[in-house]
Amino acid sequence: MRFILLLIARFLGSVQFTLGKMYYDGKGVSQDYAEAVKWWRKAADQGHALAQFSLGIVYANGQGVPQDYTEAVKWHRKAADQGYAGAQNNLGFLYYHGQGLPQDYTEAVKWYHKAADQGHALAQGCLGVMYDKGQGVPQDYAEAVKWYHKAADQGEEMAQFTFGKMYYDGKGVPHDFVQAHLWLNLAASQLTGPARDTAEKNREIVAAQMTPAQIAACITRMAC
């Protein structure tokens, strides 16, 4: 009987989450963040990880509820403890910035690692930053490159930019203008606004220092 009740609760939680998502997105109903919060809370109280994660987001953003980072931490932690990678990443972010709890780089690294190990691209990029800067871990350029590369391969544009810079500076990888140009170009093609301008400027700085052979190699790879 307990197993049957758990199955029913899980089913109801999924329905409640979906209804909340419809209100949040305004699909099939008028957009209403407060209603989204109401239904997500019902699902979250039954242990629905995605609903818990969603509550963490709305509390952090002040959507349908007053902005409250302490509540954001509470709900992200519940989902993170269930292994939800998005919540683990966000909990790492909250620890990194000291929002809703004391700033703690070591804890930030711990949660970024949990999400990154599940393939979460943004967490992988953030973990790269931690190793790059030596925040919460000993500075380790090779480890930073490893995580930047994982995120960049998934299309995370800021990781692509930083990975390109690592090749330009020769940090954690051999100095390589062709690779630097390749990744900076990929980043520039995805970024917008000032970030894109910065990527394009760095790409041109690299291009100005490339030899004809390097330019030819770049063209051959169809990356420039």
Question: pLDDT below 50 for ≥5 consecutive residues: which ranges?
Answer: 1-9
Query: What is the overall silhouette?
Result: elongated
Number of strands: 0
Q: N- to C-terminal separation?
A: 63 Å
Description:
- There is one protein chain.
- With 224 residues, this protein is mainly alpha-helical.
- It has a domain at 1-113: Serine Threonine Protein Phosphatase 5, Tetratricopeptide repeat.
- 73% of the residues lie in helices and 0% in strands.
- The chain has twelve helices and no strands.
- It has helices at 2-25, 33-44, 49-61, 69-81, 85-97, 105-116, 121-133, 141-153, 157-169, 177-190, 193-207, 212-220.
- It is elongated and about 65 Å long.
Task: Looking at this protein, list some descriptive labels.
mainly alpha, disordered N terminus, 224 residues, Serine Threonine Protein Phosphatase 5, Tetratricopeptide repeat, 73% helix, elongated
Quick recap:
With 224 residues, the chain is mainly alpha-helical. Helix content is 73%, strand content 0%.
Element layout with pairings:
Blueprint: H1 2-25, H2 33-44, H3 49-61, H4 69-81, H5 85-97, H6 105-116, H7 121-133, H8 141-153, H9 157-169, H10 177-190, H11 193-207, H12 212-220
